[in-house]
Amino acid sequence: MFLKELDLGHETKCTCGSCKGTGIYKGFAEHDDLGVVCHYCNGKGYYTLELNENMQLVQDEKTGTVYEVSDGLIVGSVSLFNELQKRDDVNYVMYSTGRVFSPEYLFEHGASEINVIRYEEFIQGKLPLPMMQYTCPRQISQSYGNAEFDNDCEFGCFSDCKKFGTQECWKKFYGEAKTIEEKQNVLKKVR
Ligand SMILES: [Zn+2]
Q1: For the chain, which residues make up each domain, given as ranges?
Q2: What is the CA(124)–ligand 1 centre distance, in A?
Q3: Is the whole model's pTM more than 0.85, yes or no?
Q4: pLDDT digits (tens, 9 = 90+) for 157-172
């Protein structure tokens, strides 16, 4: 291997492996052209790799593969993030509810275009607002990374919590944010 050291600073954006850099996950619960915001990167398509002084990134000049080196040992490979990758199988985006949905079913049953946004809007940087009745803010901020939310939750399991799907928790989560855009900005802070 011909390895050269990359000097990209202490923080490097790496492609999220779960959504392959698209920011969108589509599994068995997402029917038709529905996708959900990726749990691992919160729709960004990348995660930020923080390098300490004992770590480097090196690139194999032949294959282009980038390796993460810690204390002189290769500990893994990463893919450098350039831009959000496009998907051609998704037209609508929402936050996961853990339920099986299609866009047609959602709109027939009163879902709003605030909760289920068009893929073009997502590409432009918008996020859907989670459907309050099907999820709780702790579920999102826990599985989405470091942001913490606690409203004296009463659970075992999220859906067992007496407050699950209630306005009380969402009001606390959004805080001062009132408009859709302000609420989207709260969601963007969840890592
Ligand atoms: Zn992702």
Answers
A1: 129-191
A2: 16
A3: yes
A4: 777 788 888 888 899 8
